[in-house]
Amino acid sequence: MSRFGRVTLAVGLLVAVTAYGCGRTGTTATRSAPGIGPISTACSLITRGEASAALGRPASPPTAGLSPVEGAQECGFYVTPIDPTVGLGVALFQGMSDADFANQKWAASPYPGRVLRPISGIADQAVLSSAETTAAVAFRKGSRVVVVTLSVARGPAEGPALGLAKAAAGRT
Tell me: the pLDDT tens digits for 73-126? Predict the structure, then answer.
């Protein structure tokens, strides 16, 4: 994949599921919703240390926001100096059914025709999409769907993205 293609894919991944430019500082707190108990926030699913390890250099503090895509909570980790080809995004969707997950209601619109492969060992259902230095893992645990996107400068992103998704599933 050309550098331009990689940058385009990386920026698309980050814009789709992170708080790119939202400007609010993230939180690791959880809150409760009536009748359903504690709800994780997107920024409580991945630690800054895990983000730094996956990105290959120190990560920024998490940036939280709300997505226009299905109202998901978002969290983004970036590197400094800013590199638009490197970043980690986490999106948390609430109230998704099996059918919603199967129909990819959580998927961002810039990705028509994306090939998703089912993977096991992460939550109730999970799919992966990866290409060289970018990877996205989406999983459903109960009625929550989490999408983890990772774009790195060098090396395959698939392994670290799967590790992040497993960590996030343990906190969901």
Answer: 999 999 988 888 899 999 998 888 888 887 776 664 344 555 678 899 999 999
One-character DSSP codes across 49-85:
HHHHHHHTSPBPPPEEEE-SSTT-EEEEEEBSS--TT
CA–CA gap between residue 75 and residue 114 (Å, rounded): 22
- Residue 18: count other Cβ atoms within 10 Å of its Cβ: 27
Cα–Cα distance for residue pair 151/133, rounded to 1 Å: 6
CB environment 77-107: b (16+ within 10 A), e (fewer): bbbeeeeebbbbbbbbbbebeeebbeeeebb
Q: Which domain holds residue 115?
A: 3-171
User: Which residues make beta-bridge pairs with 140?
Assistant: 125, 145
Q: Is 157 strand, coil or helix?
A: coil
Q: Which of 29, 1, 11, 54 is nearest to 167 (CA)?
A: 54
| CATH code of the domain covering residue 31 | 3.40.1000.10
Per the structure, how many domains does the chain have?
1
Determine the Cα–Cα distance for residues 156 and 152; give it in Å rounded to an integer: 8
Residue 49 burial class via C-beta count within 10 angstroms: exposed 0-12, middle 13-18, buried 19 and up: exposed
DSSP assigned state of 32: E
